[in-house]
Structures are given as structure tokens and as C-alpha cells.
Prior knowledge:
The complex is a heterodimer.
Chain A: H1 2-22, H2 40-46, E1 48-52, H3 56-69, E2 73-78, E3 83-91, H4 95-110, E4 125-136, E5 143-155, E6 161-166, H5 170-190
Antiparallel strand pairs in A: 1-5, 2-3, 3-4, 4-5, 5-6
Helix pairs in contact in A: 3-5
Chain B: H1 4-15, H2 31-38, E1 39-42, H3 47-60, E2 64-69, E3 74-80, E4 84-94, E5 98-107, E6 110-111, H4 115-133
Antiparallel strand pairs in B: 1-5, 2-3, 3-4, 4-5, 5-6
Amino acid sequence: MRGAMGKLVVPMLGAMLVGSLAGCVTDAVPKDALRLPESSLELRSLQTRKLAAPSEVAILTATVAVLQDMEFNIDRIEKPLGVISASKLSDADDKGEKTGLFFLDLLCAAGGGSDCDNMSTAKDKQRLFLTMVVLPSLERNGEYSVRVTIQRVIYDKEDRVRIRERIKTPEIYQKVFANLRQSLAIEVNQS
Amino acid sequence: MISKFHLLPGLLLIAGCATTTPVDIQGNSSQLESRQIQTRQYDTLDKALTMRSAVATLQDLGFTIDQADAELGVITATRYDQYTMRMTVTVVQRGNERVSVRANARIGENPVTDAETYQDFFVALDKAMFLTLQHID
């Protein structure tokens, strides 16, 4: 009996040791964490525009103004590098999405469902992080290269992170640049 | 009778992960080794263009810039993905010949220590440097 117990103790100990060590293991670094994606050039051109402006100050002023128009707060500016960092915390609930979830609950309840709580999955807040890099073009005088990159983190109602993502939607960047062109036109007309 | 042997599993479970939390000031990697894998030298005198390329590289890799200082050559950036990755890149003029670029990264609470990941970063930086030097920005 004692011999049989002895035989069992060693594997059990091994399993417990592995278990207790596994508890300390943290997530490994993903292999491709800093590998350049194949689509990087495509994304770069989506995020970049060349704009003519009378001066560096004019285009930087127009850029800051457009960020204010889009209700961002400017976190930092480093003029020699042309880097503007901005962010905003806003409501992530799309009205259409909320309405959809509301009707989903209604349908669920009408169908006799007892757990009709889709509304609670409505996203709550999103924090947007934006970087604008505005630099004199290396190709032409009087032309400026503007590149914008955007990321967002969506939190649920309990402040838990639901989604972390880089924005790759072309329309979003087109909208930013359309706003910037308008802002630049206003800036040029006013000065 | 309970032998010492029988107490061991219990002790292992209690010890489990660290019971006290030491201040992790030193980090885990050796100073020289980490410097080596995190640093590349570039045969250029143009610190400004190198910084411009470093910012572009971080953007290419999906980061947004938290802060940048042209004078000190420091850029800090964050990427929100499946995980949150934070990077600091420093660009320093070395003598009259070279510019040295050092990058270090953390994913959540873990430092990135593997050489391959930094190698990937410098491959991306090489490409951005090439594009900058070709005046394609």
C-alpha cells in the first residue's frame, strides 16, 4: 500500500510543481510583434497626403484647428519633428447600434426568451489616439507631407477593455484630410 | 504520520508565485546584452532625418506617438492591439560619423527581450530610412 502511494506521490508532485510554475508564466511576446506588415506601404499612402501651404506655421495651425474641430485634445506637440499627439474620450454607442440591440431585446422577449439583455452589450466609451506628422516635403518647396495614424480602445460599461484596434478604414482618413483641406483654406483666407 | 515529503506540495502551492512584490528597478536582462540587441548604428550624420524615419517606422507598425523630443532624440509610442505595446526609441549622434538608434519595447508588463523582435524593428527602420533618403515620404 505504502509502495503504491509512493509511486503516485512523485507524478503528483511533478504535476503540482508544473501547475504552480505555470501560474507565474506571463504571455509570451508574439513572434511578429514588430514585423512590418506587407500592407504597410498601402496603409502609409492611405494615411498620407501632400498639401501646399504658405508656411509651416500655417499648416500646423490649420492642423491643430482641425483636431479641435473634431473635438480632440492636443496632448503634445514637438514642432521640430512635426509631431502632434491628440486624443479624445467619447461615447462609443452608435445610435443605430443601440436601436438595433433594443429591437433585438424586443424580439427576444416577444419570442418568450427569458434572457433578453442585448442592450447591456452596447459599447460604452471609446478613447481615440491620433498622431499627425506634418513636415516639409523632401520633394518640393512649399509642399508639406501630412500623415495621420489613429487607434482606439473601446471600454464596456464596467470600464473593461473590449476592443483595441488600429483604424484602417480608408473613409476615416479621407474625412480627416477633407477636414484638413477645409481648415487650411480657412487659415489661408484669414491670414 | 505526515512526513516532510507530504508537506512539500502544500509549500509549493503556498509559495506559488512571489508572495512579496519587490520593486522591479533593475529588470531581468543584462545591461550590455540588452543594449546590444536593441541598438543599431547608421552611417549618417543626419539625426533629424533618422528621427523622421523612426517616427514613420513607428507609424508603419501601427503605433501612435505619445511624445517626441527632437533635441534629446527620444520618441515614445504606444500600440493598442490584442495587447498594449509601448516603445521608446532614442536617436543619438555618435561622434562625427554615425547616428545610433536604440529601441526598447514592453508588452503589457513584459519587457521584450528577444533579439528577433528588435531585428524586425530595425528591418522596418532600414526601409523607412531608405524611403526618407530617396525623398519618398
